[in-house]
Design goal:
Strand content: 15-25%
Strand order of the largest sheet: 7-8-13-10-9-14-15
Oligomer: single chain
Distance between the termini: 47 Å
Structural class: alpha+beta
Shape: globular
Number of helices: 18
Largest sheet: 7 strands, mixed
Number of strands: 17
C-alpha cells in the first residue's frame, strides 16, 4: 500500500494495482467511477476492501501517476526546465510505462503551472515570467530592499540567478581580496576583519562559460552603479573552470590562490573514495601521515617535490594510492607515452599537475600572517549549513535562508560601523596559527622533521 499525491494536491491510495481517492476524512477510500471502496486505520494501515472492483488491476497507471507526481515535485523544488525534468524522469521508466504517459507537451504544461505557484502573487501568471516579480526578489523584513540582481530567465541555455544588495556590491567593489566559494555563493568579503557575503549565485552547472557569465554580469551590475571592481587576489576552490574564468574575466595578472581548507577537503574525499575512513579515524599513525600530505602546502614551493619524495619513503602501504593521487594532481603531474619509433626506446612526456604548487602553497602566506582561507571559508560553510539545516534544500528554502544571512550580515556591518569589536578567534585557531607560523619561520631544509611537526599541528586542530 502506498500514498501518492493527486493532481489537485490530495492523497491517492495505491493498493494491489488499484488507485483510490479519499472519500471522507474517516479514511474511507473509493475508486472513482468504479464502485469499489477500501477502508484503513487512522494511520492508513490495514487496508480492507469493502466492495469489489468492476475492472482489472492496472499497475502501469500507478507507475504513471507516481512518475508525474515526482516530476511535479522536481519542477516545484528546482530550477530545472520542464523539458529537463521530463527527460530525466522518463529515463528511469520502462517502455510500458512511457507508452502510458500523457503527451510531453501536456506534461510540460503541468510542470510550468507547478513552477508558477512558487512565485508569491503570481500563481496564475505566465511560467516564463522572470522571478523579478516574486516576493523573494527583495531582502524582506520591515524595510525590504532589492535582492535579486539578475535572472537570465527560464529560456536561457543555462539558468543563472544572482542575488546581492547595493551595499554588498559596494563592499565587493572596494575590497582587493575576493573569496569564491564553490557551493553557491561569492563569499565572504573582508572589510576590517569583517566577513560578509557579497553575492549569492544559483547556477545549474559549474562550467567555465557559466562562471564567466556570472563574473561579467556582476562586474556589469557594479559598473551600472558607478562601482568599478579591481580585485588583486581571488581565493577559490580547486575548480579549473572557475580558475580559468577568473583569469579570462578579471585578467591574467590576478593572483589566484587555492583555499587550504578545500585542499584538505579534497584529500579527505579521496580517503573516503578509497575506503580508508575507518583507518583514518582509528589509526593515529595513518591519520598523522594524511596530515603530513596536506602539510606539503606549508613547505617553500622549491621544496615541495623533495617533500613528496620523503613521503614516498616513509608512507605506509595503505597510503600508496592516496599519495599517488596527491602527487599526480598537485605536485608532479602524470606521464604518458609518446612517439612511434621502432628503436625499442620508451619515451614518456610529463603532464603538468592539474593544480600547480604555486596555486595551493601557503608557506609565504603563513609567514606574512595572510589568509589561507581555512578558518573563514570553513566557518562560513559550517555556519550557513547550520542555518539551512538540511542537505539539498529546495531552491525556495535556500533563498529564504540567503535572505536571513543578508540580515545577519547587515547586523554585523552596522555593529562594525558603531565600533563593536568582532568576536575574537577561538584559542585553538590562534594557537594553531602561532604554531604554523613558528614552524615556517624555523624551517631550515629538513623536510622530514618539518612535515612531522606540521602534520601533528593541523591534525590536532582537525580532531578537536
Amino acid at each position: 500500500m502506498e500514498i501518492i499525491q493527486s493532481n489537485k494536491g490530495g492523497n491517492k491510495l495505491c493498493y494491489r494495482g488499484y488507485m483510490y481517492v479519499l472519500h471522507r476524512e474517516c479514511n474511507f477510500f473509493y475508486a472513482g467511477d468504479c464502485n469499489a471502496s477500501l477502508t484503513t486505520t487512522l494511520n492508513k494501515e490495514e487496508p480492507s476492501i469493502t466492495r469489489d472492483h468492476n475492472h482489472p488491476a492496472d499497475e502501469e497507471s500507478i507507475k504513471v501517476a507516481k512518475a508525474i507526481g515526482g516530476m511535479k515535485i522536481r519542477a516545484k523544488d528546482t530550477l530545472s526546465k520542464p523539458a529537463q525534468v521530463f527527460a530525466e524522469a522518463v529515463l528511469q521508466l520502462e517502455n510500458t510505462t512511457r507508452a502510458r504517459l500523457p503527451l510531453e507537451d501536456s506534461v510540460k504544461r503541468t510542470l510550468r503551472k507547478q513552477k508558477s505557484k512558487n512565485c508569491s502573487g503570481n500563481a496564475t501568471g505566465s511560467s516564463h515570467r522572470r522571478y523579478a516579480n516574486c516576493d523573494w526578489a527583495t531582502t524582506g523584513g520591515i524595510a525590504p530592499e532589492r535582492f535579486l540582481l539578475n535572472d537570465n530567465g527560464p529560456n536561457a541555455a543555462q539558468r543563472v540567478i544572482i542575488f546581492s544588495t547595493d551595499a554588498a556590491l559596494n563592499l565587493l567593489a572596494t575590497t582587493e581580496e575576493w573569496y569564491l566559494d564553490g557551493n553557491f555563493s561569492l563569499a565572504p568579503i573582508r572589510s576590517n576583519n569583517l566577513f560578509t557575503t557579497a553575492v549569492f549565485c544559483l547556477l545549474q552547472n559549474k562550467t567555465q562559460q557559466t562562471y564567466e557569465y556570472l563574473l561579467r554580469t556582476v562586474l556589469q551590475k557594479c559598473e551600472e552603479r558607478g562601482l568599478y571592481c579591481d580585485p588583486q587576489v581571488v581565493h577559490l576552490d580547486f575548480e579549473r573552470p572557475a580558475i580559468q574564468a577568473v583569469k579570462n574575466v578579471l585578467g591574467e595578472d590576478i593572483s589566484v590562490r587555492g583555499c587550504f581548507y578545500h585542499l584538505t577537503q579534497s584529500t579527505f574525499r579521496k580517503i573516503q573514495e578509497l575506503g580508508l575512513v575507518n583507518l583514518y579515524k582509528e589509526n593515529k599513525a595513518f591519520n598523522h601521515f594524511c596530515g603530513m600530505i596536506d602539510g606539503l602546502a606549508f613547505l617553500p614551493p622549491r621544496d615541495v617535490r623533495r617533500g613528496m619524495l620523503h613521503l614516498r619513503e616513509v608512507a605506509p602501504a595503505e597510503a600508496e594510492d592516496l599519495l599517488n593521487y596527491f602527487d599526480a594532481t598537485y605536485v608532479s603531474g602524470t606521464f604518458r607515452r609518446v612517439g612511434n619509433n621502432n628503436d625499442g626506446a620508451l619515451r614518456m612526456r610529463n603532464i603538468s599537475p592539474m593544480f600547480p604548487v604555486d596555486l595551493w602553497n601557503v608557506h609565504q602566506a603563513t609567514l606574512q600572517g595572510q589568509d589561507r582561507t581555512n578558518n573563514q571559508t570553513e566557518g562560513w560553510n559550517n555556519r550557513f549549513s547550520n542555518l539551512v539545516g538540511e542537505n539539498h534544500p529546495t531552491v525556495w528554502k535556500l533563498i529564504s535562508k540567503m535572505r536571513q544571512e543578508v540580515a545577519a550580515d547587515l547586523t554585523k556591518i552596522e555593529q562594525n560601523n558603531l565600533g563593536v569589536i568582532a568576536k575574537k578567534k577561538k584559542n585553538v585557531y590562534e594557537d594553531m596559527q602561532r604554531r604554523l607560523n613558528n614552524l615556517c619561520m624555523q624551517y631550515e631544509g629538513d623536510v622530514g622533521r618539518f612535515l612531522l611537526a606540521v602534520g601533528h599541528t593541523i591534525r590536532f586542530r582537525t580532531n578537536n
